[in-house]
């Protein structure tokens, strides 16, 4: 089963936020999933939709339950903290 577009956007947001918060890269995630960078890139850029089973795997890689993973885009602490770090880094 594939995700719909709004779910896809939520998954992409969750992955992006978690990668920044944990200071990891898409390459790291691809390696953890046993995939190549093209695979993760095509999904993160919305050329290919994530399958439900892939979302479950990604949540496991981040050490989260599926419910916790899907709640990430709504979590203010994860949304704001990485953005502050990025802004501070750009100012330096």
Outline the structure in words.
This is HTH cro/C1-type domain-containing protein. By secondary structure, the protein is an all-alpha fold. It has a single domain, classed as Orthogonal Bundle (434 Repressor (Amino-terminal Domain)). The chain has 6 helices and no strands. Helix 1 (5-21) crosses helix 6 (76-91) and helix 2 packs across helix 3. The longest helix is centred in the first third of the chain and has 17 residues, at 5-21. It is globular. The protein starts with a helix and ends with a helix. Mean pLDDT is 82; it is low at 82-92.
Residue share in β-strands: under 5%
Mean pLDDT: 82
Kindly identify the CATH topology.
434 Repressor (Amino-terminal Domain)
Overall CATH class: Mainly Alpha
What is the string of SSEs from the N terminus onward?
A: HHHHHH
Largest sheet: none
- Structural class based on helices, strands and sheet pairing: mainly alpha
CATH architecture: Orthogonal Bundle
Question: Low-confidence parts lasting 5 or more residues at pLDDT below 50?
Answer: 82-92
Question: Could you give me the name of the CATH homologous superfamily?
Answer: lambda repressor-like DNA-binding domains
- The overall strand count is 0
Number of domains: 1
Helix content: 55-70%
Query: Outline, from the CA principal axes?
Result: globular
Distance between the termini: 45 Å
How large, in whole angstroms, is the Cα Rg?
13 Å
Count the helices. How many?
6
